[in-house]
UniProtKB/TrEMBL annotation:
Xref: InterPro entries: Rib_uL2_dom2 (IPR014722), Ribosomal_eL14 (IPR039660), Ribosomal_eL14_dom (IPR002784), Translation_prot_SH3-like_sf (IPR008991)
GO cellular component: cytosolic large ribosomal subunit
Domain Large ribosomal subunit protein eL14 residues, every copy: 47-119
Similarity-based family: Belongs to the eukaryotic ribosomal protein eL14 family.
Protein name in the entry: Large ribosomal subunit protein eL14 domain-containing protein
């Protein structure tokens, strides 16, 4: 399968380093082979140059022209439904789950542990019952 995620105008990227970590941004212009001009309309990130090493390219695209104005970008971003598409993607779900688990309290972690043990016991009993019935 050929590589499909290219650095191009309208590519949605995830910031993976720095104070904007975890935010979605859109490539507005390519400065050179190391840097791009990005803006994050949903996260409220103003237009700025960022290194490509600090970005992870996603499969999502926003149909915009080179150097699109902030209002045009915001409208195209909303029309493309990027936030909903990101939330429905496996990558977005995994990051959401990871952040939820990181923010659990001790009691919430305890409840998760008890639920996991209960589920494992129920599955174990069912497996034993099916093995006994098959024999």
């Amino acid at each position: 399968m050929p590589y499909a995620r290219f650095v191009q105008i309208g590519r949605v990227c995830l910031v993976n380093y720095g104070p904007m970590r975890g935010s979605l941004v859109v490539v507005v212009n390519v400065v050179d082979h190391n840097r791009v001009l990005v803006e994050g309309p949903a996260a409220g990130i103003s237009r700025q140059v960022i290194r490509l090493t600090r970005l992870s390219l996603t499969d999502l695209m926003v149909p915009i022209q080179l150097g699109a104005r902030p209002g045009t970008l915001a409208k195209a971003y909303a029309k493309a439904g990027i936030d909903e598409a990101w939330a429905a993607s496996s990558w977005g779900k995994k990051l959401s789950t990871r952040s939820k688990r990181a923010n659990l309290s001790d009691y919430d972690r305890f409840k998760v542990m008890v639920a996991r043990k209960t589920k494992s016991r129920a599955i174990g009993k069912e497996v034993k019952r099916l093995k006994k019935a098959a024999a």
